[in-house]
Amino acid sequence: MNIQENISLKAYNTFGIAKNARFFVIAKSITELKDALSWAKDQKINSLILGGGSNILLTQDQDALVIKIEIEGIVIVQEDEDFLWVEVGAGVNWHQFVLTSIDNNWAGIENLSLIPGTVGASPMQNIGAYGVEIKDVFARLKALNRDSLKLEEFDADQCQFGYRESVFKHELKGKYVICSVTFKLKKVPEFHTEYGAIQETLQASGIKELSLRAISDAVIKIRQSKLPDPKEIGNSGSFFKNPTISTQQFEALRDKYPTIPGYPNEDGVKVPAAWLIEQCEWKGKRFGEIGVHSKQPLVLVNYGNGDGEEIKNLALKIQQSVLDKFQIEIHPEVNFL
Ligand code: EPU
User: Fold this and answer.
1) Which atom of ligand 1 lies closest to the CA of 237?
2) Is-contact 290 303, C-beta < 8 A?
3) Which of the following is catalytic: 164, 166, 216, 236?
């Protein structure tokens, strides 16, 4: 085990925030992960699990052992006439897995192309985009219990998936480390093109026949046109979740703001946080090294040397302005550390 001291985490979080880890280690297997957790326990220091670092905002140095999960592997574990069950190591890069699935004609995750982060982090917040969520293709996962150091299995019900939610963000927060995820993928694709932008992009590209690759390419094109590439501008994707408000509140707001977009769901009406933030005139605003992205105001950015604390303060101001103007609370999707 190669435990390093005082390591900068700048390269390990997509926001590119330069905070340090007191101790840092890479775990390439479950055995290495257990060793690292045991070491931290013996030293009486906290341990912090890191995947692709694409959904965190570092606001301080981490007085902990930061364990970066690099457990690899993409293995078909079961198969029938219609489906394949593919077990994927938590450390596999999500988009690489999507590309592998397309190369092999495994269908179901093509709409989730180009999402940053690792496979192990994907069930934590039930990643989703363009009409598909991880829960739609999820079979089960294996996670290490941080107390007992035993591997346990969770099915979809036990994960309690919701919009950008799972049990691992609530009751079981900090209690398990996801080591692998098994996905149930289709042999014959069922294309999801109901999201308007996908259809427009396919048409603009002159695509006549749908394929996994065509959908993936369209999603990549849309994402690249709206979302900043973390390699160029630090960011964490959507910083806030889209709020759901009551139908009554939505109708009252629509009287005042006739252009307000809204998508009815079982709890009321979902309103795009991007629209609310844009109305509060934050879109494209830059404050020194940090700011609000000019093409998608749901994304906060670090232009290079931004500080996590500053981004947190900007987020608080945005939340307050949306609350003042629309009486709607918006909540971060990103985890503050
Ligand atoms: N909008 C604006 N101004 C803008 C951009 C968008 O008003 O500058 C409004 C428009 O009404 C637009 C609506 O927001 O129709 C929705 O925009 P978009 O399609 O870009 O999606 P989103 O709701 O802002 C969500 C996810 C994204 C995901 C897209 C596509 C959340 C928090 N975000 O964004 O996920 O890629 O849908 O499915 O649900 C992520 O989680 O990191 C992420 C990027």
Assistant:
1) 42
2) yes
3) 164
